[in-house]
Amino acid sequence: MKRMNTTGKNFWTSRRISLAVAAAASLAAAFALSSCENVTGYTQPSLVRVIDASYIAPTVNVVVESELLASNIGQGTITPYGTLPANNAALIQITAATGGPALATANGTLLAGHQHSVFLADNGAAPTSYEVTILEDQQTVAASGHSAFRFLNQAVKIGPVDLYMVPAGTTLANAIPLVTGLPAGGTAGYISFTSQTVTMVVTPTGLTTPFYAYTPMALTGGEVRTVLLMDTQLTSNPAVAFTVADDAGPAD
Q1: Residues 173 and 201 in one domain
Q2: Contact 132, 120 (CB under 8 A)
Q3: How do residues 164-181 score in pLDDT, each as one tens digit?
Q4: Which phi-psi region, left, alpha or beta, contains residue 148 (left: φ > 0; alpha: ψ -120 to 50)?
Q5: What is the residue range of 109's domain?
Q6: Is the domain of 99 the same as that of 190?
């Protein structure tokens, strides 16, 4: 076996030490930059996700400024957040997952350091007409001991609804609605309430017959969530389905 001479060994040892020192210096510089709130030439990115609430759109891809943000998603999907550069007029294109021309396009503002949702819904103007909007999402946790929920009502078959967060041990009849008279296409957002174990219930406005009762949620404080309400596929007895997404704070 060929052995390395002492001179060669010392050279490589010194070389490794030099590289280690350089790496440490580079890492320290990186941490120094990341700890600064404002760095010359640096712009914070925007966090962006997709909420697909369209009943009539096929499975779609969502492209923002030539970046594929979501692929092969369908109704009821709320994607995780992705990172995109801030932009005052970001081009958003919705295309069928199978390809072809854009089904819908829009321009929206993506603010630096903020969270947004690309919201796809049906606008009712034509059988294949979609509406794309940009929602600004709450990115700070709710106040201590409180939770904050936003509601997007896309349940078009059942009319205006009331929404309850019924505490454990309390009946619906004794609960006070968190939201009343929310119409289809309406948004009620971010409403803060005391954190505890609650069951989310939706009823026709003014009635106490529930369309749906969600699985009890043990809320501990700080949660910020978006709730998407949709019609179920039932035709003889319309009901409501939920998709719940974490915007900030503790996750499920």
Answers
A1: yes
A2: yes
A3: 999 999 999 899 999 999
A4: beta
A5: 46-137
A6: no
